[in-house]
Amino acid sequence: MPLVVGEDTRNWLARSLKAGHASDVQLKLKGDLAKFPFEDGKSGLFEVAVKANGARLEYAPAWPGIEDIAVDLLFRGKRMDIYAHAGHTHGMQLGKVHVQIPDLLAMEEMLLVDGEAQGPTQDMLKFIDQSPVNDKIDGFSQGMQADGKGKLNLALKIPLRRLDDISVAGSYLFQNNKVMLGEGMPALEQVNGALRFTGSSVAIQGLSARFLGGPASINASTQQGLIQINANGKATAEGLSRAFPHPLLQRLQGSANWNGSIALRKKLANAIFTSSLNGMGSTLPLPFNKQAGDSVMLRLERKAATLEQDVISFSYGNVLAAQFARSQQSGQMKVERGVIRLGGGPVELPANGIWLNGSLPYLDIDHWRELTNGSGGNGEGLALDGANLKLSVLDAFGRRFKDLSVNAWKLNDGWQAALENREMSGSVNWKQGGAGHVNGRFKSLSIPPAAPPKLSAPVTVSESTEYPSLDIIADNFSIRDNQLGRLELVAAPSGRDWRINRLKLNTPETTLSLDGIWQNWVQQPRSQFNLQLETSDIGKLLARVGHPDSVKGGKAVLKGQLSWNGSPADIHYPSLSGTMSLEANRGQFLKIEPGIGKLLGILSLQALPRRITLDFRDVFSDGFAFDDISMNVKASQGVVSSNDFKMDGPAAKVSMQGETSLANETQNLRVRVVPVLGDTVTSAAAFLGGPVVGLTTLLVQRVLKDPIGQIIAYEYSITGTWDNPVVAKLKRNSGDGKIWESGS
């Protein structure tokens, strides 16, 4: 180069042309050399033309070089032009590139670069990331991945004496691309349109794409160093399920419009996403079920404090609001503290931990558990540190709880929770290990009524569900408002079954002990138990279970083995089977009102004097006193039978055999009643026949063991229903052993 060319230009040429092979070099020099290099173009001619191949050009520091160039290099007068016809940079094939210095003699030499390239969008992103453009646009494209091709246009103005003052202008035309915005973000598909940038700005107008299953439009602009991106579109339920493959999202149908904005300053991105969800329906359990035509505002916001810290806020109508503070750990953003508030309303980040607070009018834990069990979601989930909830209605474990307050906190090895409502008052401790262990201590505990059918579609429970073992003590336990005393329960799951090692109920007068198994309790439950009941006051026991004033006093022992379909708390009479034995003594049946204690009314024989006239009406209708009752019972599919029922009292002796249906409330019984005459006969005989007859009668009674009582016996058949029994008096046995009905 002639020395008249500035030193900066000569240095740039020496530094930038790294390689190449010149195949055709021409020099033209004409004119008075004193006027060299003939900058006016009239006094002479200076021209150097070079054709080169395999050239490598590094036109500016820190900018990706151009490789394998087929180039025409031309110096003419005070001007330099480089035309690249072929080459590539970062995988993009160059179309045409023009590098020029308009004035080699100027004190402020300016290098101009104009070019275009085509190729994979991913290579364009690499080009931007590894060039000074990345800093100029605040790392706007960092983290993006792309599939597809496009066209890059780039214009640079480089003052050779001030290389830090490079001016940049460019654009990239997306051609049906797929762009991944970053980790955890859904992809933009079918992206078409141009992204324009300068050294200090980014602009997008009407970039079209498919996002979350529907069309989307994206615009961007730069305002005082802030890159503002605005987008809107329509999301579909199918698109959401593809982008976030979680089973819960499969419960959505339809589509809804959305709006989003991102504010980017110095790589810090603040974002807001909103949608009314109008047009999208949900069959999720309450409170997230929704008709497609209903509008519920969904809002998601991110505020970045630093590159490593941000706050995520989320709200869904007046149902849920949440806020989480995150920080970067091992290259991923992790939640450090947060709060989830049910029932909506303002939220405030706690000093530490992740907490669940608030209230809901209704929550169905069973349905949520069925939906989320074994879902295999992608996320690790949130590890809560505590909860403070008020639930007006809660359906859990097939039962409905009302006005429940839950205050729970995490322990080193599990959870501790205080539970309070009209059905329970106490605390529960859950410890880790296997499927876990629940230890409950209650002042009061009641089995609430069964929950009604689900308000939305039922879901099959996975048989792989594991539940913890139980150790429960309740000082006051009740079922259906019946106070059953102190409860002790020890139970644990065993495969598909639930084994109850001990269930004990204690009242001042009664002890019930039970053990057994709750078979296949998740899907086809069946209860099978050994039980023993001892009571020192039958009357008080019956009053506890809803039959007051039916028996006075009395002691009893009931033993046996029973099984039925369903849970232990709900006996299914049509399937009840097993054997029982009863021993009772020293009690009295009281007058029982119709419709109350129906089966008890049959056993007390009060139906007899109401249906036919007997010689011993007062014995039963005013309450039969008994000294002993004994029987063995066999139950099969809800039909209870016995052939050895015996009841002895001071007024009569009763034996009974037959069967009764607990499900249909019917019976087919045969009853034999023998009045106990005893010394009454003697007194009557003495009065009517004198002392000799009376003494003779007394001796016969004692020696022959009450032959008169055996003679004066009454037999009946009892059929029909418990409410309306049909009683028929039977004749005595005839000589041929047949039983004849009475004619009266």
Task: Give your account of this protein's structure.
The chain is mainly beta and 744 residues long. Among the domains are: 1-180, no CATH class; 361-524, no CATH class. Helix content is 12%, strand content 54%. The protein has a 39-stranded mixed beta sheet that branches. A hairpin with a 2-residue loop joins strand 4 (79-89) and strand 5. The N and C termini lie far apart (145 Å). The model is unreliable at 374-380, 456-462, 609-619, 679-705 and 734-744 (pLDDT under 50).
Identify low-pLDDT runs: 374-380, 456-462, 609-619, 679-705, 734-744
- The protein's oligomeric status is single chain
Radius of gyration: 47 Å
What can be said about the biggest beta sheet? 39 strands, mixed
What is the arithmetic mean of pLDDT? 81
> How far do the termini sit from each other?
145 Å
Shape: rod-shaped
Number of strands: 39
Strand content: over 45%
Could you estimate the helical fraction of the residues in percent?
Answer: 10-25%
- Give the structural class: mainly beta
The tally of helices reads: 11
